[in-house]
Amino acid sequence: MSRRATDQAAAAPPEVSRAALESIATRAGQVALEHFHRVTPERKPDRTLVTEADRAVEAFVVAELRSRWPEVGIVAEEGTVRAPAGESAFVVDPIDGTAVFVAGLPTWCVCIGLMHAGCARAGVVHLPCSAELYTAVDGQAWWNGVPLGRLDDGPPAGDPFVAVHSKAHRRHQLRGMSKLRSLGSAAYHVVLVARGVARAALLGNVRVWDLGAAGAVLGAVGGVFEFLDGGRVPLGTLLDGRRASGDVLAGTPAAIAELRTQLHA
Asked: In Å, how far are 157, 260, 262 from 224, measured between CA atoms?
């Protein structure tokens, strides 16, 4: 291959199929389920929880990604970092919602996202306990194989709610807001917005592996990430593992504007 062809290949995102992402995530979910209800949590230096299940799932996912896409970088929550050959990197959260996993609750998920040139291009969010798969590839999104349509700016079907992180009551005045849900996983909150059952989400202390996979699903249906204080969230700048610099809102621009007004009231 010529130098020019090599450079072009490095500049293009890798070919990633929905079937491949869902296969890896589903099998990773089985690894996690083997540990569910049978874990002893530990504290990481940042005081968040980690378990042997997190490490086992990450090892499985990383091995699968390396075997299929050896040229693509990897950034994973439990420490796996591999430099990319081009502008693409997988971001992996082996168990998003480790605290609810430890508590024996079902709303944790496996997240695998593909970033290219700073944008979330593909991803899968899998909830093993409820057998849910949220997937996005090439600007299309699915929930359990059913295509997700574009979000409009009207209220969601059913009883609308806002998904919030577990410390939102400490940071914000929430009394004037509509019904709230806190389910223990930032990624799950985001895909519930993408599915149209949550109006918007307020996310706290998030990193790229919380946002990459779910962000691909959200973006495919017309949603965005914005900081509470304004401005889009530049996911590419978070690939070094740093936390987002403030609380993050997920939804359509109109839903975010409405939520921002409520939170600033």
From this structure: 20, 14, 18
